[in-house]
Write the structure tokens for this entry.
Amino acid sequence: EHKALTDEMVELGSEYLGLNGAADKTKLAPNMLGLALRETMRDAGQAAYGPMLALAENGSSLEKGAAAGALASTQDDVIYQMLLDDVILSEDSPLTGRQAGTVLNGLLGSETFGDQTWDWFKANLPAYVNKVPDVRKGGLPGVGRNFCSLERRDELRSFVEANAELMPGYERSLMQTLEGIELCAALKDAKADELAAALKAR
């Protein structure tokens, strides 16, 4: 059933982008757009990259947001590198700073690329910060919002505090992000304990 839904989303997303001929945007309800574009990006890979980037650049506000989020769902190493170099870091990026942030946060939450994106972010922070408007620099600790372990919590705190001058006003964002990580880690531990107890009781 899940595969049938995924296949349907890929078909509708592909038609929306015009991957198999003329684009047809009539069959996809707006509330399904994000899901369909994400599944299409995962499935079609490099064939979807150009049209998806164009939609993120030139579409309606709904399309721009959905396409930016979909770009980050890629499973393709080549596309991943292009997103880092040409979309997130490049001065000539076709996307706005806010959209580039959406792509970055999506990649940080990716099961495939999350860890290496965090390493990339740490190595490229000085260059990336140049693209972030001053009023949003204080929110940069939010890049850790998908983390879910106390080790990552400590790593994020150390990294942000060591680079505080690049993120003026970071304190509140860091505190909220650390709290979110702690909550996630506690829930994960509770679920693991529940599972262990259930298995023991069998």
Remarks:
- Residues 125 and 163 are 9 Å apart (CA to CA).
- The chain is about 70% helix and 0% strand.
